[in-house]
Every structure is written in structure tokens, then in C-alpha cells.
Write a structure and sequence with these properties.
Structural class: mainly beta
Number of strands: 10
Helix content: under 10%
Order of helices and strands: EEEEEEEEEE
Largest sheet: 10 strands, antiparallel
Strand order of the largest sheet: 1-2-3-4-5-6-7-8-9-10
Radius of gyration: 19 Å
Shape: globular
Length: 172
């Protein structure tokens, strides 16, 4: 409606003995070169304080360039509360796009906050297929936390990690 879209989700605990639920709502507004978004998510974990996150995102296109901003405030049940912020940029050059981004997670009560720096290049092979290469480095990555896949970063130098990836992306 008028450039605005939203979505919501409610997740129930199916068949478990705990009473865990989650709720998420997001809204986005597109107005030409500008996109603004906001979101809220809460996890009601049985026996623990609720976890909540508020997010703000934005993008702005200027000719062949695109600028990105992100902010999130986290209230966590099993780890320190945190704030995540980041910026990114992309610049289209013919069939290719050069990309870069920086994100940091400011964890309450610590002086060693994880940060990510990434640069990459995408090249379109056709309307649905592209190849990409990227390099990323994470400092203090062991303090990122999380659950499931990528729960911690394994490294031998105090939580710092870096990597290079190459791939092909095809939209069906």
C-alpha cells in the first residue's frame, strides 16, 4: 500500500515440554531511492526473562551507488544485552557490483566488541545468474553468540577470523 509493506510471524512451541514462543513484526517503506524499515521481535523462553530486539534499517540509492544503514538493540535472556550497528555501500559498474560493509556488536559490560569488515564483487552472467567473490574479517568473533549454525567462530587467535568465499548464485 503506497510503498508500505509489512509482515508478522508467531512461532509456537510444538510438542515440547517447555512453553517457548516467539513473535516478530516488520514494516518497510519504499519511496523511490529511499527504503526505511523497522522491526520488533520477542522470544518468550520458559523460565527465562523475555528476549527482545528492535531494528531500524535504511537504504538510499544515488545513481550507481547504494548506501545501507542498520541498527539493532537487543535485550538478551542468557547473555549480556547488546547494540548492533553497521553501514554498507555498493557501487554498480556495468555487469559488476563492488560491495563493502562494516558491522559492530557493542556488548554491555565488555571492552572487546566483535566487528565485521567485508568487501566483495558480484558479476552478472545473465538476468538470473551471477558469480561472486568476497573477503571478510571478524575481530572478537568468539563473542558473537547465537544459536544453531554458526554459534561460535572457531579460531586460534583470540576470536579473530577471516575468510574468502567464491560462489555462483542463480535465481529460479
Amino acid at each position: 500500500m503506497g510503498g508500505f509493506q509489512s509482515l508478522a510471524a508467531y512461532v509456537t512451541d510444538l510438542g515440547g515440554t517447555d512453553d517457548n514462543t516467539a513473535f516478530s513484526v516488520n514494516g518497510f517503506y519504499n519511496a523511490g531511492p529511499l527504503m526505511l524499515g523497522a522491526g520488533y521481535e520477542t522470544h518468550d523462553l520458559d523460565g527465562l526473562p523475555d528476549q527482545n530486539s528492535y531494528r531500524l534499517v535504511g537504504t538510499y540509492k544515488i545513481g550507481a551507488a547504494k548506501l545501507v544503514g542498520y541498527y539493532q538493540d537487543e535485550t538478551n535472556a542468557t547473555q549480556a544485552d547488546a547494540t548492533v550497528f553497521g553501514v554498507g555501500a555498493a557501487y554498480a559498474m556495468g555487469a559488476g557490483t563492488l560491495k563493502g560493509q562494516y558491522y559492530e556488536r557493542d556488548i554491555d559490560g565488555t571492552g572487546s566488541d566483535p566487528a565485521l569488515v567485508a568487501i566483495g564483487y558480484d558479476h552478472k552472467l545473465g538476468s538470473k545468474t551471477a558469480v561472486y567473490a568476497q573477503y571478510a574479517t571478524v575481530s572478537e568473533g568468539a563473542k558473537l553468540g547465537g544459536a544453531g549454525h554458526g554459534e561460535t567462530i572457531q579460531s586460534t587467535n583470540g576470536g579473530d577470523a577471516d575468510g574468502i568465499s567464491f560462489g555462483i548464485r542463480h535465481k529460479f
